[in-house]
Structure formats: C-alpha cells, structure tokens
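Repro case for the chain-ordering regression, as requested:
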Amino acid sequence: MSYCEDCGCKVYSGKCTNCNEELFILEQYDELAGTEFELPYPDEDSEFMKKVRQQENQLKNQ
Ligand SMILES: [Zn+2]
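-- result from build under test --
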C-alpha cells in the first residue's frame, strides 16, 4: 500500500483516492456500463470531465 505524496491518502494503482477522485468515479461509470445500473456519462465539457482529463494528463507525466 502506498500513500499520496500530496495529501497522504491511499493510492490505488497509481491513483490517489483524494486527488484523483474523479478518476475513481469515472471507473464506477465504466463498471456499471452495460448493467441495469448504467449511468449516463457526464458531458465531455463538464467540470467533472475537465478534472478527469487533467488528472489523466498528470498521471501520464509522472
Ligand atoms: Zn492525494
């Protein structure tokens, strides 16, 4: 188990549960897709997806 250098929260597969919260939420969308609990994805230009893209870029640059 590793911990985030920025906030000290737990890090799962390179993602911080706090700093990368939106990425974890997006994973929930992926897991529910195709099931009866399926959720419509947020708009690409929503605040949520902007954060997701930012966090993806940060992880790529590490
Ligand atoms: Zn963090």
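Ordering looks correct now. The chain has a mean pLDDT of 95.
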